[in-house]
Amino acid sequence: MHHQLADAALVESWPPELVVVGSSLGSIPLVGPVRVPCVSGRSYLLAMRLTLEYGALEIHVGNTVRRITRLGPYLAIVPYLSRQSGVEVMLWHPERTGPIRFIFHSLRIQEVEPDTVAAAAVRLEAEFEEETGRMADPVSDNLVPNADFEEDDEVRGLPAHWSAYTDVEIDQDEHVLSVNGTPYEGRPALATGPAALVPGRRYRAECRVRVVEGELSFRAMDYDELNVLASASLDGGDRDFEAYTLEFVAPGDAKAVRLWIAPERKDSGVRFDLRAIQLELLPEANR
């Protein structure tokens, strides 16, 4: 059950509830444009609730573009100063981000005074964070470097800034990394680049993986890759993609974290597909 955003009008003309789209080599519009009525010269907050199951999404409000890659419940808050009698809102599927599946919940518009925009946004954020335990409209959507696999390391065939100790193939159209091999002793099959941490804050890591062969674990490692901050076993059996999550509090001396997918046992072969991986900062209340 989603809370009603106080003093905000529901935009009834927004049509979809569930959207599922295949891969696309170019950016394509998914929904809209839907024209949201406004009064010229007045200030508004547009608040969109959705749940991203996989893929990437862009919200276009007039000339403002908000890119979303964080999986799970999401509240996007976009301030808007109306220059005319309405604003066009659209959802786009960014190029080369593979299939997308998301659930649209609501789009609301709230008129605010220019000097109360920040306070009104904070109230909406606090309501969402209390309900879901997730950050609302985070400045850094997904803390994993190059989580979209967009930038290639042409020499190694990996997403830029990542590491691998097995064979890796990237299917940009399907947005999947396929990993196959036996990493040498103590090393992961696949590791993201380092993401900076704030000591004492709580974080959630999530990956979407299909395990084909081998016993694997999902680990949050410190910057030096010596200490495990959190770990979870991954289920095998060549099933569909499954979601796995970790939560941890950044130690006082923590610089950064790397996310590993590694064999449970040294010198064992593994084969798996990775569709998405993310790291998010949780609200202060979850510390």
Percent helix, as a range, is under 10%
List segments where confidence is low: pLDDT < 50 over at least 5 consecutive residues.
1-6
- Which of globular, elongated, flat, extended, rod-shaped describes the shape? globular
Give the mean pLDDT.
Answer: 85
Largest sheet: 6 strands, antiparallel
**CATH topology grouping of the largest domain:** Jelly Rolls
Number of strands: 22
Summarize the structure.
This protein is mainly beta and 287 residues long. The chain is built from one helix and 22 strands.
Structure description:
This protein is mainly beta and 287 residues long. The protein has 2 domains: 9-132, Jelly Rolls (Sandwich), CATH 2.60.120; 152-286, Jelly Rolls (Sandwich). Helix content is 6%, strand content 50%. The chain contains 1 helix and 22 strands. The radius of gyration is 20 Å and the shape is globular. It starts with 8 loop residues before the first strand and ends in a 6-residue tail after the last strand. Residues 1-6 have low confidence and may be disordered.
Write the layout of secondary structure elements.
Blueprint: E1 9-10, E2 18-21, E3 28-37, E4 43-54, E5 57-61, E6 64-68, E7 72-81, E8 86-93, E9 100-112, H1 117-132, E10 152-153, E11 158-159, E12 163-164, E13 167-171, E14 176-181, E15 190-191, E16 195-196, E17 202-213, E18 216-222, E19 228-234, E20 242-249, E21 256-263, E22 270-281
Antiparallel strand pairs: 1-9, 2-9, 3-8, 4-7, 4-9, 5-6, 5-8, 10-11, 12-15, 13-14, 14-22, 15-21, 16-21, 17-20, 17-22, 18-19, 18-21
